[in-house]
Amino acid sequence: MQGNMMQRQMTLTDVMRHARTNYPNQEIVSVTADNPAHRYTYKESFTRAAQLASALEKLGANAGDRIASLAWNDYRHFELYYASSCSGMICHTINPRLFPEQIAFIINHAEDKIIFTDSMFVPLLEALSDKIKVEAFVVMTNKENMPESKLANVHCYEDLIASGDENFSWPELNENDAAALCYTSGTTGNPKGVLYSHRAMVIHSYASLLPDVFDLSATDVVMPIVPMFHVNAWSIPYGAAAVGAKIVFPGPKMADGETLSKLINEEKVTISAGVPTVWLALLTYLRQTGINIPSLQRVVSGGSACPWSIMEELEQKHDVYLHQAWGMTEMTPLGTYNARVSTNLPPEKQKALRLKQGKPSFGVELRIVDEKGNELPRDGVAFGALQVRGYWIIERYFKQTESALTADGWFDTGDVATLDPDGYMTITDRTKDVIKSGGEWISSIELENQAVALDGVAEAAVIGVLHPKWDERPLLIIVKDGSKELEPNEILASFEGKVAKWWIPNDCVFVEEIPHTATGKISKKDLREQFQNHQWTQEIEK
Amino acid sequence: MQGNMMQRQMTLTDVMRHARTNYPNQEIVSVTADNPAHRYTYKESFTRAAQLASALEKLGANAGDRIASLAWNDYRHFELYYASSCSGMICHTINPRLFPEQIAFIINHAEDKIIFTDSMFVPLLEALSDKIKVEAFVVMTNKENMPESKLANVHCYEDLIASGDENFSWPELNENDAAALCYTSGTTGNPKGVLYSHRAMVIHSYASLLPDVFDLSATDVVMPIVPMFHVNAWSIPYGAAAVGAKIVFPGPKMADGETLSKLINEEKVTISAGVPTVWLALLTYLRQTGINIPSLQRVVSGGSACPWSIMEELEQKHDVYLHQAWGMTEMTPLGTYNARVSTNLPPEKQKALRLKQGKPSFGVELRIVDEKGNELPRDGVAFGALQVRGYWIIERYFKQTESALTADGWFDTGDVATLDPDGYMTITDRTKDVIKSGGEWISSIELENQAVALDGVAEAAVIGVLHPKWDERPLLIIVKDGSKELEPNEILASFEGKVAKWWIPNDCVFVEEIPHTATGKISKKDLREQFQNHQWTQEIEK
Questions:
Q1: Looking at the predicted complex, does its ipTM rise above 0.85?
Q2: Which of A177, A420, B365, B376 has CB atoms 3.0–4.6 Å from A380's, for a disulfide?
Q3: For chains A and B, what is the number of CB pairs under 8 angstroms?
């Protein structure tokens, strides 16, 4: 028997209308290349979004067309988010930090119709112009600041706004209509597109706002330092509007401690979100200048595990609580969130919990499985391939017909993790980096953490190398920092008592340099190639 | 173009599984008739819910069957909520405070298959037994406390649990499947059923949890004093599970200041929800005993407008913030919520805002319309019929084929309200009580509020009475408290300068008593009958 409730479709148009109707005078503050202190209201913003949607239509864009952006976090990018998605078009954000070839691939694969770009990315697009096919470019600035350009069919953003009708009639959309597109920055193979539906984004916004997640309210001032060009800035541009929070956009100044601390203090920012290096940059600046940031209460950190030293300094010096979060492009992106832990717990227990990736929000489920797909216990010890399912998880990649899921409907994240009895998840490895020894798994990350803590070690990597008896065995690769003489046997002996005996690497080699990927991570793929014929010198008893 | 995300169905089963997996050891504490201090965990609760679902199946209940309850707020009722809804059956809560004839009507109209009842309602059901047709009764107690009963086919709840299989396999449900049924306590005509879908209840739960609404987190201890027998206790039993909050159920002791204050202090309750009379009872008890309730931070008040005196006393004496909320059975029930207002505002402005019904949560939209259905301005002055639409609003009543909505898809609430430019809604009247004078509307509630504030007035009602020139004119009806001589002309003169001149009632009459409805409200229907032939003594110039 079916319920008798309205079948209202969940769309981002509802988010926009809610903010405009109930929080018309709430502020949006931006740093942009052409204005270091732009300020207006939700009402003005959504009026301009209507004008932009109308102008897009006049440019010949239709429902389903991909409208791309190469842009920083600011009010114009925010307008474009709503103008494209709420008119039935697809907001395709492109990460300008990718290699030019990847950007060209993405533009062509997405078949972008129009590209909106910040002035500073015009040369990048010019260099690609003979490789990509798009109908028009829009430079996100005003007439006075329009750069010279060799691009064909270039428009000025503010002229476009002026030409649009503020009474544009937003269409009624279906909640399963695509709203946005974002490509993964895959380390192997070509980037893959994730096509988000309105429904997934609206439910994800609800979940992201909960008190044990971003905890956003109308009295908050939120500064997203996570880029709007990747996974929709963790959905903050939608969540903030859904609750009427004030937004502060740092524009191109995302890693600039001076700008960030100035914005925090001038706009009374209460919450911010970014990757660990952002917090490091901010803390370094605050340390050097002695500046305080009293309005800031909490920050969200994701993208990679956050070192404890950052969490400690933020809390002890600035009374700012850092929450770790974990997610993926394929997850809109939120998976887990590390909510405030009880201060009744002993400090060491609090620290141990806060270093985990957190608990799943309601709406996403986690499980860990072994190589045969059997579910493993949630005991905090067993680790396996982390799989997810839920209201805002991918089903298949853009333009692919086959499902990206397991036969029983879960998405494999490519991470290896533990789950504890209280629901906390801890990433222990990437699936492709875990070492398979005698049918069991060894976490490369845990061994690296042990090695890098030793005096004299600048950097450490652990990879699995073929072994005649055990399939794979761990090989420890070290870059010395020169402060101390290091002996391989001494280093290997240091693992005893800290990890299971059979986890201890069979060999330790020293190298001048460890190869890195474009995003600064250790390139284990390169290391595995380099050491594929390694001759083992030590045996292991299991 | 459609998005490529998973089509996971939103169901209460997900809520249950989320709490069981991630908050297994969180507590649920209950007062019941057979145990004043029952305590267990979510894990135990949902294990018993599985046993109960299995036992229901053995009793012959199937998907779509209505499983009714006549019960207070406690852990067994909580188990029944999940056991019935998550097995595809429909959890039909019945308000035991209705007239017996209404209860019989509801049971028969719903075609309830099994009725779960607290021991104290057994006599009520016995008295109705020849008027209703159900297959079985279950008394929600253990063997030792089973009452003697003349009911046919009676089971003991704990025996049923013992007979069930804790490995019951929950079915995969569709989100549009019906999950629960609740009848309105209509003042006119027969009660009407609202059949909630899983989808509506899950989205409603998300919205109810937001920081500017109930603001529930895993560290909260929530005590719902709103009955689980009406509109699912404002969805707290679902919301609390979705975030892993501790729940405290007061059982039959819903209006008992002693029990409530004891539970607050012993269980460290942080948030509670109830109607204004509950807060009055609690405050009276605290005043008499000098007891404090330091753990309690905030309460939600709904059902009727809360007097300022209660809000003031809670805040000034106990540092408890009272939030007004407004909703309806047809709205699952949440419509608006009055979030914490800024303490930067002048006290009088804060008070004025807090006396409003609040702002809509994201997911529900409000509008006010005139008699022709034209939308009225959101200026805080114009008032009209309040209409709503959204993700958890009724489309039609149970067993009715025709829509309950306007031609353009809105539900008319039967309330008259203003909307201000910042989204705040204020109820000014019920549509059927508003006075239509010369084509314009006069708010009976506003006039009553003025009158009842006068010295010597015990109670006041204002109704519209036919008038040859103006269609209707307001008649003021007063019960004196005997403390002062009152003159009709003097009373009418007191309105001058406080309301528009044409709002001032044409007459004032004194009566010994004003008639009330079963739920304690002024019966305007009876007053209109009583005064239908009233002879006007005063004229009005408009």
A1: yes
A2: A420
A3: 207
